[in-house]
Write a structure and sequence with these properties.
By secondary structure, this protein is α+β, with helices and mostly antiparallel strands. The protein has a single domain, classed as Glutaredoxin, CATH 3.40.30.10. The protein is built from 10 helices and 4 strands; from the N terminus they run E-H-E-H-H-H-H-H-H-H-H-E-E-H. A 4-stranded mixed beta sheet has the order 2-1-3-4. It is globular. The protein starts with a strand and ends in a 7-residue tail after the last helix. 34% of the residues are buried.
Length: 216
């Protein structure tokens, strides 16, 4: 029996990136399925968040994510361009967000086409994997192709279905909160939330209790 879990995931979250390879390999090797449910990052979901955040948090986050990437053997750099357009000094986040809306909406479409986890894996390997100007040239086109998708088709559908996709994202955010946590990455299995890249082992352990099996 295939075990399924909901994956709440943000295209600006370094911790989401850092767990994705493990989730991708997990689904490759075990009879398990991630229901990919992209959400907008807190910079969009919580207006003014970065104007109030503890100033000790950003430098710790950078140290911690560099450390985890090294431990996991993953390439890592803060995305250039940042998926969120914001003033780093003031924390001001303008309403116009060309990158995060495109990524999140196409992420929903990828999930609807049955390629959600592969799309997260390939795109985050660009954005957080050190590829400068990941939004230009054929970077996204090639990443989508590796995931079995057509980036031009995704972009066209994302533009045409913008309102519907944002409604799906809002539903994802509501389900995320209802599960018992607001952060990402958040894996929810049978109503039990597992928050953070460091909870992957706990998720796998719980699934083993429920009859997790390897693929044959």
């Amino acid at each position: 029996m295939t075990l399924e879990y909901d994956l709440f995931w943000s295209f600006r979250s370094p911790y989401s990136y850092l767990v994705t390879k493990r989730l991708y390999e997990f689904e490759r090797d075990y009879d398990v399925k991630a229901n990919v449910r992209p959400v907008y990052p807190i910079a969009v979901r919580i207006p003014g968040f970065f104007k109030q955040v503890n100033p000790m948090w950003p430098p710790y986050l950078l140290k911690d994510t560099v450390r985890i990437a090294a431990m996991e053997g993953l390439p890592y750099a803060w995305p250039s361009p940042d998926p969120i357009v914001m003033d780093i000094k003031t924390g001001e986040v303008p309403a116009e967000q060309p990158y995060i809306h495109r990524l999140t909406r196409t992420g929903v479409l990828a999930a609807e086409r049955g390629k959600g986890l592969a799309y997260l894996y390939e795109v985050s390997a660009l954005t957080f994997g050190g590829v400068k100007d990941w939004d230009k040239g054929d970077h996204l086109k090639n990443a989508a192709a590796r995931a079995g998708l057509d980036m031009a088709e995704l972009d066209a559908a994302a533009l045409k279905e913008k309102d519907r996709l944002d409604a799906v994202i809002a539903e994802n955010e509501a389900a995320q909160k209802a599960s018992g946590h607001w952060g990402v990455p958040l894996m929810v299995f049978e109503g039990e939330p597992f928050f953070g890249q460091d909870r992957f082992g706990h998720l796998k352990w719980r699934m083993e209790q429920k009859g997790l099996t390897k693929r044959v």
